[in-house]
Amino acid sequence: MSQSSVTAIHRRTPSADDPQTELISTLRGQIQDLFTQVTQLNSKLVQSYDQRTQHLSALNTGLLVERSNVVEELTRLMERATQEAAQRSSAESAKRNIETELEELSKDLFEGANGMVAEARYERFLSEKRAEESERRVRETEEKLVSIQQEMRKLDKGKWVPRTGDLVKERKLMSSHVPYQEFLGFVGHLRGLYGQHGQAAPAMSILLGLPFLTRIATEDSDPTLRLDLAPSLNWLSRRSSNRCRLRNSCIN
């Protein structure tokens, strides 16, 4: 019912005591209440729309965050904190292990140093003892030399008795010595080669089989050079080096 209809009804009302008049008054009051409620609802609707607009604007600008995003971020932070706590625990455990190893290493080094010092002191004691023993022997030797020199001086005062000819033994050349016989055979072989071929130097393959050169290589050159201990030389290489050495053709 509009305001004009209410006004028309009011104009048709003849008196205030009529039931229609009371009904109209009641209806007017109800209509006024309805207008008031509509106005309040419109205000609330506008306010709610403004609040929703502000809420959406805050969400878009980042002033407000949705609960799911907050829960997800909190979960991620908790997982990260748990991982960092586990890493910290592992680091502390590794640190304790390293400190324990350092303590054990320091202890071993200290014990080793003490052992080395004790060994050095013992070696020094032995060296001093050997030095004292050597000095004592030197003094005894000097005393013996002085005594021998005194005895020699006493003997020099006497007369020397010349040796008779019976005591002098005849010197003989021992030609039965095996190396000497091999040397004579080597010289004779060279003379025979020079006489037959007239060459300045015989072939080395002819000379290597002689006992004299074999003895020289076995008893002199090989023990000195020790080519058998060289891992890079085989039997043929050692043989070639022996030939070069006998020919005097080695190059430094």
TrEMBL record:
- Indicate the segments forming the GDP/GTP exchange factor Sec2 N-terminal domain, all copies: 27-155
Q: Which UniProt keywords apply?
A: Coiled coil
Provide the coiled-coil residue spans. Answer: 64-158
Protein's GO biological process? exocytosis
Q: Which GO terms describe its cellular component?
A: cell tip; Golgi to plasma membrane transport vesicle
- The reply on keyword Endoplasmic reticulum is no
Q: Which Pfam families match?
A: Sec2p (PF06428)
For this UniProt entry, the molecular function terms from Gene Ontology, in alphabetical order, are: guanyl-nucleotide exchange factor activity
Name of the protein in question: GDP/GTP exchange factor Sec2 N-terminal domain-containing protein
State the organism of origin. Lentinula aciculospora
